[in-house]
């Protein structure tokens, strides 16, 4: 929590995720925060007391909505990205909010982007709404490393009782390094069939573990990815993407890639970014104690 206007909604989302995953909730705040709105500083200069008040109010809000949820708080001092990255090594999920000016600034902010690439656990970014209906949408990679992301998405869809939409983006020949794609008669149809086959193969092993999760498959070229993200964000309840060696889908989501800079302005549903080394289904303590400085 940083004390911005999105703090109450982010607390609600984090508490709901903790209940869904049957995990305790740790509310962390890196001082000094922004302290806007009801959390604004009582004095001319922000003090640690403002941070403690923010944590107390946030914990009370979480317990009010989920009385049986174990809630703890911790006030940290240091760089937000660095401290939260350390916390991620002890967590099942890190929940952060998009910056307040989401409609005027297209990127998520440096902390969320840093966590996306260096965090040890999945990162959920709250972007103003938490729909209770709609499918879970996953960016499905045909690479072996994409199995982690698919497993996470299937598990989330099963927990929510929703369907799963698997989106696979293929890069047109000649467009990966920038030059205009070569136009070959019938080439689009061939590329689409190859992409659909790769997507089907990637999903083949997941039907048995999750027989009750309906699956819809969607293969799109990179040119259509911005529009696809926009529609998925408006109609889905959760977007899931992996952070791998390429990770173009995830980068488009948080605004570091040009083609999606108009699409991310309207993203509404939360987004989960899954690190490549994450082991889905392996229980990890949500909190293992105070964050200690790395040994010299």
TrEMBL record:
Q: Would you say which domain of life the source belongs to?
A: Bacteria
Pfam families per record:
Usp (PF00582)
Q: Which Gene3D superfamilies match?
A: HUPs
Cited CDD domains: USP-like (cd00293)
Where in this chain does the record put each UspA domain? 1-125, 135-275
The name on file for this protein is Nucleotide-binding universal stress UspA family protein
Q: Which organism is it from?
A: Actinoplanes digitatis
